[in-house]
Specification:
With 182 residues, the protein is mostly helical. It is built from eleven helices and no strands. The chain is globular. Bound molecules: fe (iii) ion.
Length: 182
Amino acid sequence: MSVVDDIIRLFETQGHTAYYGEPVSQKEHALQTAHQAEQEGASASVVVAALVHDIGHVLRGLPEDIASQGIDSRHEDAGEAWLARHFGPAVTEPVKLHVAAKRYLCATDPDYQRRLSPASVQSLHLQGGPFRRDEIAAFEKHPYYREAVQLRRYDDAAKVPGWDVPGLEHYRQLLEAAVVHD
Ligand code: FE
């Protein structure tokens, strides 16, 4: 079994779990995020990152209401650690930074925070709230911060019940091409 088989199987078997407080499952959310990346003409790495950005949630099988328990599950770190065994930084860094990108956008885009879903506003506080000025500057030094912000916008818009988007197999070739060590 290849790592790509593992990823597809993981979403098939664990992806039915709810995306905390949102009206879509983890699998639907992953597929909608990747679909937007592809539609917007994002790079192959960003499309792959979009598909797997929340893999930390399905990897750990955490309780569905973790955010409401006042625990920040740091799913972006769990996801990045697992993905780094198989993918390079163009995939793993946007995944690692996608929560920081939310804090960045809350601090730099006045409309952004207003458009967040209630669950996302709740987790924002657990994640540390909007960035301060020094945190903004530090974030913008990161080589993949633009890709992380791009991913974040697809992520936020990938919560649409019943949206008919391509399935996991649609991304098999892209995933295989992005693997650096199987
Ligand atoms: Fe997400």
